[in-house]
Fold this protein.
Amino acid sequence: MSLDEPTERPRPQTDEQECHDDVQMTEASQKAPAAEPPTARPDMNRRRFLNRAVGGAAALTLAACGRGKNSQSPMPGPTATQVSESSLIPTPSGAPYKVFMPVVENGQSAQAALVPTITPEPTLTPTPPKATATPAPPTPTPTPVATPFPPGPPGKLGLFVARNHPQLFDLLKTQGVSVVKTLELDGNFAKQIKETSPRTLLIGRIDLPQLNLATFDPLGEARRFMEELAPVAEDPRRQPYFDGWESYNEPVAASGDEMAKLAEFEAERTRLLAERGLRSVVGNFGAGQPPLELWERFLPAVQAVQQYNGWLGLHEYSAPTMYYLTTRENQGRYPGVSPEDSGWLTLRYRQVYNQILKPTGLAVPLIFTELGIDGLVTERPGPPDARGWKDFQRYWAENGYGLWGPGAYIEQLVWYDEAMRQDEYVIGGCIYALAASAGWESYDILGPAAAVLEQYLSVHAPA
């Protein structure tokens, strides 16, 4: 498929030409994440902006991983309480891992599917001008062509959509979008999503100021939440189309007592929603949150999800690549992934399920209501001021992750999709974002990246 070069990049780039890498897929030694992840960065965060962007009553003061804006507190590391995080990342088995993309023919050699990449631009030989004619204009640069993804099993990638945009429906027409989460609650928009792709799940969230977990009354807050949500969710223009409703975005519990309050609120909210025939999506914790030792205090909410047919929601981001702080870190552009892999940011969910939820019989259905590249999640390598994926394109080109940014990003999301497919309890994950809100353009996949994703979804849709 032919894809136009992006008309605008976040940073100036050289006129480099992408070509297929001559990569030998060897078994790299697996590297466990550091015992103590870096500290969270005290930058502006997505939660604060979204509340402003959609008319929230109060701006949040949480940092990207749920810490205060000026906090220097570290990312959760190993603790001596209840569950030691350092023990939760499994030791790789050393067995050969499954290459996450099939082998395809490319030119004269069989290579791992280095997709999407740009076919090399041909050498342009200028034609000498005729003595009596005006010199011919230079031959235009050929349009980049991405190598198609080969067919594969149904994927689990979905989309976070901030506003209505035609390219969303191009993606939905593939029938390969697992789930859409949106703040755009227009009934006609929801109807069109379901008519275009009936199997796609649709999750909504109303805008509310963040909770103060230290002072709130869980049961009273659950009733107040229902008073806010019911007129929206039970409107006949919406109710047939929305499959689930979140509550507060990325709540942060500073202690076990605060987590217990949050769990009581989410359990009661889930029960109240179920009485009205509505499904609850609980949690929706930020990347790297909550500390693993606090999960036990949240189990009443997970039990309510199991009882009332709800879903658990989590956010997973990393940077400078989706592999950072996982057991596949520093293993190259195509590191593969196995069910034994885990991490501190991306693939962190496997620690939660394998060590906490499965042993208690609570492996409830999981949806990642946000996922992707986010430079705000932690101290990390790469450009210090980078935020969304567009800000990491030069870093990827310079470090062997692909010269063409849109293709390099979709490759990393495909890696995460392979991990989600390995876990039966995962329903899907919403890439942040398509048609992002103003101020979050560096995260937006509109344009060439979405076109590459469309080709991938078209060959990874259910039969």
Notes: Residues 256-275 form the longest helix (20 residues). The CA atoms of residues 12 and 394 lie 9 Å apart. The beta strands are 103-106, 109-112, 157-161, 179-182, 201-204, 244-245, 281-285, 311-318, 366-373, 426-434.
